[in-house]
Specification:
With 366 residues, the protein is of the alpha+beta class. It has helices spanning 25-32, 35-43, 252-258, 262-272, 275-278, 291-314, 322-325, 334-339, and strands spanning 6-10, 16-20, 51-57, 60-67, 76-82, 101-104, 119-125, 133-135, 144-146, 148-149, 152-153, 163-166, 176-183, 188-195, 201-204, 215-228, 231-240, 283-284, 349-353. It has one domain: Inorganic pyrophosphatase (Inorganic Pyrophosphatase, Alpha-Beta Complex), CATH 3.90.80. It has 8 helices and 19 strands. A hairpin with a 2-residue loop joins strand 16 and strand 17. It is globular, with a radius of gyration of 21 Å.
């Protein structure tokens, strides 16, 4: 028996799955106090142990391997792609031989855009999970691993209410500098930001809980930006192709119509999720970027990704231009200036490339 807060589904194998719809404010608040208990139950199941998953996206077949145990430092998710010349046609079975697949990077080797104009999301942290999983840029083939801090595995203190991941072949390149103007009655200050040195983040606001590591097509709806220690951390808002309202939701206004309060709750979660560690709120511009602006942002970070690959291949990311090397930009005073002012809309604009920036040689590429 289900309540109004639950939807009961039955998969093709006849097993039952309960999906809690948390896109309404009341239901989110009801679950807020119990989410760590739920996360502990689900993340400690042996669901991913020794499991191979076969999936096809945009006519390409991938295999995901979940290696070692969840909540261990050596747990990771590896990606493989089916060879084009193999004669195997059945991709529904998990018994396909490994010899028909080659290792790939989820960052470098999965297409950003599909033929139907959806974008591929790499699911790092499923809905209701609290483990801080991410594409590891410094590990061979950029496998998904749990992030660490001071040698310890990182966890959210409150599990996330949406599916969270990254867009392949995008990069928030720290070489590029952005700026915004902070005005008050006494003076005017310009503050500067760089990218956060990661693939572009994406949040799926759909109702279903996706699988960790899953490659899922999503529709882009909008974006907002988080500011963290002088870095811009953009968040793309999207909805996955398998959501029951995928065809009806095409922009941020539609999100409010079908899943009321989701955008406000989403921004508030990212504003406050570090409170347990840092005792301070993150800085988030209240400005929401629409679908067109979000796609332009994705295209720009895809260009940055390509630029990074060129820079790394050439073992340099600068040109000798004395006109660009004279200016010293102070990034350290940003958060103080921001916190001293009441910010409603933070208008962030592109400034220029930092010609003295040196490419991060530790990032793994083919």
């Amino acid at each position: 028996m289900t309540t109004d807060n639950q939807v009961q589904t039955v998969d093709s194998n006849g097993s039952q799955e309960y999906i809690l719809e948390t896109n309404k404010e009341l239901k989110i608040n009801l679950n807020f106090h119990n989410n760590n208990i739920i996360s502990n139950i689900f993340s400690n199941l042996s669901l991913y142990e020794n499991l191979k998953n076969i999936l096809t996206v945009n006519n390409k077949t991938y295999m995901l391997k979940y290696c070692n145990k969840l909540n261990d430092t050596d747990f990771y998710i590896a990606y493989f792609e089916k060879k084009m010349d193999t004669s195997i046609n059945d991709t529904s079975s998990n018994d396909i031989s490994d010899k028909n697949f080659v290792p790939i990077s989820p960052w470098h080797d999965i297409n950003l855009i599909n033929d139907d104009n959806t974008y591929n999301m790499i699911v790092e942290i499923p809905k209701y999970n609290y483990m801080k999983m991410e594409i590891n840029l410094k590990t061979p083939y950029n496998v998904i691993k749990q992030d660490t801090k001071k040698g310890k595995l990182r966890y959210y203190h409150n599990s996330i209410y949406w599916n969270y991941g990254a867009l392949p072949k995008t990069y928030e390149y720290p070489k590029h500098i952005y700026k915004c103007q902070i005005d008050n009655k006494d003076n005017s200050n310009t503050i500067y930001f760089t990218g956060d040195n990661d693939p572009l983040d994406v949040v799926d606001i759909g109702t279903d809980t996706l699988k960790m590591g899953q490659i899922v097509p999503v529709k882009i709806l909008g974006a907002f930006t988080l500011i963290d220690e002088g870095e811009l951390d953009w968040k793309i808002i999207a909805i996955n192709k398998y959501d029951k309202n995928f065809n009806e939701i095409n922009n941020l206004d539609d999100v409010e119509k079908f899943y009321p309060h989701t955008i406000n709750m989403l921004m508030e979660w990212f504003r406050s999720y570090k409170m347990a560690d840092s005792k301070k709120l993150n800085i988030i511009s209240n400005r929401l970027y629409n679908k067109t602006e979000a796609i332009k942002l994705i295209n720009k970070t895809h260009e940055y990704y390509s630029e990074f690959l060129r820079d790394k291949k050439n073992r340099k990311s600068q040109t000798e231009d004395s006109s660009n090397n004279n200016e010293v930009i102070d990034f350290k005073n940003n958060e103080k200036l921001l916190k001293e002012n009441i910010i409603n809309d933070l208008e962030i604009v592109y400034y220029k490339p930092n010609q003295s920036y040196k490419v991060n040689e530790q990032i793994w590429t083919h």
